Amino acid sequence: MDPRIELLPKKPGVYIMRSKEGAVIYVGKAKNLADRVKQYFQDSNLYSRGWKLPSLLPMIWKIDYVTTASERDALVLEEKLIKKYQPFFNSLGKDGKQYPYLKLSMSEDFPRLSIVRKKTPGKDLFFGPYPKSSIVRALMRFLWKSKYAPLRPCKWSFSRDKELDARKINTCLYFHTGQCPAPCTGKISYEDYRQIAKRMALFLEGDFTDITQQITALMQASSQEMKYEQAAVYRNFLQALDHMRERVIVGEYKDEKITQTIANSDKLKRLAHIVGLTRLPAHIEAFDNSHLFGREAVGCMVCYINGEKNHEHYRRFKIRSKLPEKGGSDFTMMQESVFRRLRQIKKDPAQKPDLILLDGGKSQITAALNACEKAGLYIPMISLAETHEGIYVPGQEESIKLPVGDPALNMLMEIRDEVHRFAVTYHRKLRDKATLSNDGHS
Q1: Which CATH number belongs to the domain containing residue 77 in this structure?
Q2: How confident is the model at residue 107, as a pLDDT?
């Protein structure tokens, strides 16, 4: 197996398989990209799909990927890319199959809820798509049986102006068993029935508060009464709610955004290979210092996620360490900045980066390693020397020198320049503030 496959992130997304010529030959979605792609290269799965997999594997030359916020995002992006590229091996793109939506037929006087494969323009409301239609169907049945939103289950066509044939009403099992509000009989008014439909619409838009509380209470009660099978049913309904709660934001993925994301993933895979990482450095944090003869000394950190700036996680540190009277100490400042950041990460491990990038040479790595030892937390790190753009890796005497224009080097230089800019800007802000303060006291 290509070791680069091991670097794929364990996140939802879309994988794009290309031939040696660069043509897209297959597009797939995954809840976990790393696990899904590995399955293609397991001998036990080779003939599980008939002719397709044995024919596809020899043609795969490159695998691109795009991570997404959720599995639903992934399936929407998958459909978009299949329609765009029409890959030969995608039966989905050939037979027109699509993931299901829930349709609330608000164009009718007495709306129904149904599962459809395509959205159509008009007054009807559509929700989804949903990768796992089975759990959505089960949840819809539960909502109906519990009378949370008992819309009519029949397919009969009728309205306020066109009544339903009485013979059809007399043969309706749902009407005779009281499972349907029976708008066809006038048992419920038009206005009251529309309120039920609006309640369902609010639910499908993500207003799950009431039903979540109800199901949670039922699950806890069943568990206390040792009705564990029933409690498991309620647990599955809560999981279905989580599945439906996922927002679809894939509309943000324009063609140029997808191209940039794929380019960034290539850079990250190359960087991981060059510096010997066992996982993709999707989350990189970079550190730099700035001062003027030791005054207004600061340390700063910038964050890149999947090769893109993540301003929300930028950090600034006023240096507290005692510095030489007539000069600073980059070693001391770097050690303090990294240590304080590591201390934050220990309180919230979800913030832990895959790689730390330091602006400087071997001495900065030594400072950062000291910080790791002091904090009791180690994170893979490298440094980039500005003098010759050499990449230093802990434990290696010589730097790694990449050719000018190398995509991985360009990315590191961009991140290094960004943290340098951020540090200088913060230092100047504090220096100007100190100058104004001194002028005010003169």
Answers
A1: 3.40.1440.10
A2: 93
